[in-house]
TrEMBL record:
Native species: Scophthalmus maximus
Coiled coil: 182-327
Biased composition (Polar residues): 167-179
GO terms under cellular component: cytoplasm; postsynaptic density
Protein name as it appears in the record: Homer scaffold protein 1
Amino acid sequence: MGEQPIFSTRAHVFQIDPSTKKNWVPTSKHAVTVSYFFDSTRNVYRIISLDGSKAIINSTITPNMTFTKTSQKFGQWADSRANTVYGLGFSSEGHLVKFADKFAEFKEAARLAKEKSQEKMELTSTPSQESAPGDLLSPLTPESINGTVEERVTPQMPQHAEARAEPSQNTLPFSHSSSSINKHWEAELEALKGNNAKLTAALLESTANVKQWKQQLAAYQEEAERLHKRVTELECVSSQTTVIKSQKTELNQTIEELELALKAKEEELETLKAEVESAHEFQSQKDVLTQKLQESETRNQTLEAQLSDLEQRLESSQLEREAFRKSLRSLLELLDSKIFELTELRDTLAKLIEGRFLWPSSAAGFLWTRRTADAPCDRLLLPTPTCQTSSGPHAYAHTELQQVVVQSIMDQRKINWQLFLLKLRCFLAFLSTSL
């Protein structure tokens, strides 16, 4: 076998489940190196893969093997000598295609090597067949032994006949010669039967020995195959030392990278935990703010309702104020008219005070005449009615009576006027406070 692999690649190794013949059983926990080797001692190609010091693939490529691609990254082949089916899972389709091409190439090389070895064996076996005697090629059986006895007896009969022919020529009696010949052949036949029995026993013993030898040969072949596999494994281990060292270096680098990645993931996990805690705090704050917002929205709705109520009340109050203003204007107009009337009445009374009354001379009523102009304006006095026909004390009494009556009437009107002004002032004060 070569010291260095012809072709190497990395793949995940599987074997068919021997019990179900359907499921795949992984033989390696991770991707391992799968290599092609050439065994120069046996002139064969092998596929070998090691997982540490254990050989998980040791398959000899034969011309009747076929590598089948079952998917884009998986291929398989059956090994009748190992009585199993191997499966390889590659990292990419390119690795699978390269492995399949190498398999087909080495399969064709194995076929050519087998044809050459068969030609060599035919050339070496032909002279030995020509030099070997024919009796050694025929099997040793009781029938063949009996056949050889008959063949031996048959050609000797003419010789004895010729030997016995001479006494017949010497005029010996024929009956005496035939009886002696029969006795001779009977004795020789008995000797041949004894030899045949001995040879049969020896044949049976050799047959039993052959069976035992076959069993021993099979055991020796199994032991030789096991030792050969062990030697192959040891040779693979010795030839792949550098590969294992490089794989170990790669694994150490991978472990360091994974440790760094693990540290980074742990830091990221701590950061995520802090973010989760802050998110919980934010969530609690959000809940509080949401509750406050709901309360403020409720208060806002209440205030909006109150505002709408106040707006309605304001609008109604504005309407009432407008109506009140209208009524006030009408009242002021009425008041102006009343004041104007009162002013006219006062002017009229003043004019009446400045004049004097005269009693009517007939039933038509009193006759008002003007008095002297120096009468006080603040004292409301009726003009003195005088009868043109009366004179003396009676006329003076009538005058005094008229003055008393007129004065009482004027006092009553003055009181009513003062009460009206007082009520008007109170109303205006209330109006000013309400506005």
